[in-house]
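Quick review question:
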């Protein structure tokens, strides 16, 4: 059988009921030779009879319907399936109720493996921009308009506009369909159908990355959000530019969930640019609590000067001032490279500008200043002398640098026991692990644990504290603390606060080594409210020394919120 999809026969019919002429277009799709022969002979006979009729009308119009019927009911060796057979109600319902907005291949729940394979091939063709559609009746493969629309994504078929996306040398030419784009974006609607509509067949977009533009088109065509860490910022820019608010909201949510000390400074800069106040607030929470990690991250060197100044003047920055000073120098080096300046001390001071006075150098301890800032060369000789005098002289000179220490963050404590006690035969440690699991309903940063001390007078303990999530170590520290014999708790800190995400259980563990008996907690609570944060506790299988929800050790979690 040979297909003749392009063959079209036009005949003129007379509508006797309404007395007016109309054109009938009969498309021969997948027409076999046998039918073609019948139709040709039928046309000749109808033409002869039509000559006896008058005018150009077809006198034997009643001969045409059987030909059309024969095409529709064409028999083959393999029985044709109707749409209801290909797309069962179960597959349609599963596709329409698909979570996360992703479109499943139609027919995935049916027994027809051929249809499913064909659909997957078409979807793969779309991704590769290799959109030659072999089946003339491809529309019949999809049960919903959304699925048929998704076929047009990145598809040359019926494309009436093209976009050349990306910077020169890295552009990509992408097909588009004006109607679909206008339905998905008010900017595209104004571009194609507004008063100042563009009639160009090719539109250049140099300020958007091709991958981000494709992600936006995929959302418009397929109602599917496909984000990755590498393209989410560029996709957010595209969504903002073309006013696609739901995609922009999804980008912000993605950024909030992936926010960490490593990328907080960069995201702070971008959130201000995109005018996303909620994301900005989340970034500040991370930067304040994990300031030293954020300032030492590679992303800090990529921020703009305005963001640098906002961080340096932050009152709640929880970091040593020498760390702030070193981070500013690292940023200055990166800025010299961006401005193609020689890496000299003078140029570092030049690019820092007035931001250098936002560093609270007089609040450093004397050792940090003498061995760090004073020998960096960034400060002038007069500035160095004045700061030394400020440390030592009774009459302190006036300084351009702020001299008041940062307030930092006030740590909060979650106490999970209602009382504590001690007995003559417990609580002994001897290197065994005390552990408890906890979860929170809001993001917090665990800075350390509050631990009990000796119940038999003053004593020194060695403590190894750990924080894990599903067996993965997030933070640990080994330190010593001195207890005075009271029932108070004594703080033991992690090197850096550990970020805790909501609605996930974490395991807090401690291995204490001491010769004396210790206090222990009683009347433990499964849920504790601390300000706006709710903690939940449950027993941990890692605990080998008796600690659980009702009693034991690790009475306090010290955190920032």
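Suggested answer, residue by residue:
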């Amino acid at each position: 059988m040979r297909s003749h999809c392009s063959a079209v026969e036009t005949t003129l019919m007379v509508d006797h009921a309404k007395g007016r002429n109309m054109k009938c277009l009969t498309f021969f799709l997948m027409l076999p030779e046998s039918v073609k022969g019948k139709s040709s002979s039928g046309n000749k006979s109808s033409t002869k009879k039509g000559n006896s009729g008058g005018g150009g009308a077809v006198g034997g119009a009643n001969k045409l319907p059987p030909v059309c019927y024969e095409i529709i009911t064409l028999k083959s060796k393999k029985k044709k399936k109707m749409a209801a057979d290909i797309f069962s109600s179960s597959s349609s319902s599963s596709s329409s109720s698909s979570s996360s907005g992703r479109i499943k291949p139609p027919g995935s729940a049916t027994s027809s493996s051929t249809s499913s394979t064909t659909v997957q091939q078409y979807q793969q063709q779309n991704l590769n921009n290799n959109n030659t559609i072999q089946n003339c009746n491809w529309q019949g493969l999809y049960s919903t308009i959304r699925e048929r629309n998704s076929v047009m994504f990145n598809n040359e078929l019926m494309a009436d506009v093209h976009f050349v996306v990306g910077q020169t040398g890295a552009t990509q030419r992408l097909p588009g369909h004006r109607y679909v784009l206008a339905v998905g974006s008010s900017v595209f609607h104004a571009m194609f159908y507004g008063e100042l509509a563009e009639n160009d067949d090719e539109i250049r977009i140099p300020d958007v990355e091709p991958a981000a533009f494709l992600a936006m088109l995929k959302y418009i065509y397929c109602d599917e959000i496909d984000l990755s860490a590498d393209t989410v910022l560029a996709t957010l820019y595209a969504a903002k530019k073309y006013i696609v608010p739901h995609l922009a909201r999804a980008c912000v949510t993605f950024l909030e969930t992936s926010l960490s000390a490593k990328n907080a400074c960069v995201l702070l800069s971008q959130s201000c640019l995109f005018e996303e106040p909620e994301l900005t607030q989340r970034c500040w929470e991370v930067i304040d609590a994990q300031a030293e990690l954020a300032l030492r991250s590679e992303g800090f060197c990529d921020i703009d000067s305005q963001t640098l100044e906002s961080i340096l003047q932050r009152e709640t920055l929880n970091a040593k001032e020498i760390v702030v000073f070193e981070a500013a120098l690292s940023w200055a080096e990166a800025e010299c490279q961006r401005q193609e300046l020689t890496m000299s001390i003078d140029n570092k001071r030049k690019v820092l500008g007035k931001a250098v006075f936002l560093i609270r150098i007089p609040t450093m301890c004397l050792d940090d200043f003498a061995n760090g800032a004073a020998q960096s060369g960034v400060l002038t000789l007069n500035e160095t002398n004045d700061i030394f005098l400020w440390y030592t002289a009774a009459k302190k000179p006036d300084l351009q640098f702020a001299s008041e220490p940062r307030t930092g963050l006030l740590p909060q404590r979650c106490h999970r026991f209602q009382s504590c006690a001690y007995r003559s035969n417990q609580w002994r440690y001897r290197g065994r692990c005390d552990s408890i699991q906890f979860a929170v309903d809001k993001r917090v940063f665990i800075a350390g644990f509050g631990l009990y001390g000796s119940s038999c007078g003053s004593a020194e303990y060695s403590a190894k504290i750990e924080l894990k999530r599903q067996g993965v170590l997030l933070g640990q520290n080994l330190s010593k603390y001195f207890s005075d014999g009271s029932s108070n708790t004594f703080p033991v800190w992690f090197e850096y606060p550990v970020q805790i995400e909501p609605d996930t259980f974490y395991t807090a563990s401690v291995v204490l080594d001491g010769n004396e008996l210790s206090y222990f907690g009683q009347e433990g609570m499964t849920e504790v409210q601390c300000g706006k944060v709710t903690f939940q506790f449950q027993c941990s299988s890692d605990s080998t020394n008796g600690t659980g929800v009702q009693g034991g050790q690790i009475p306090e979690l010290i955190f920032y919120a």
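Why it works: The chain is about 35% helix and 20% strand. The two ends are 73 Å apart (CA to CA).
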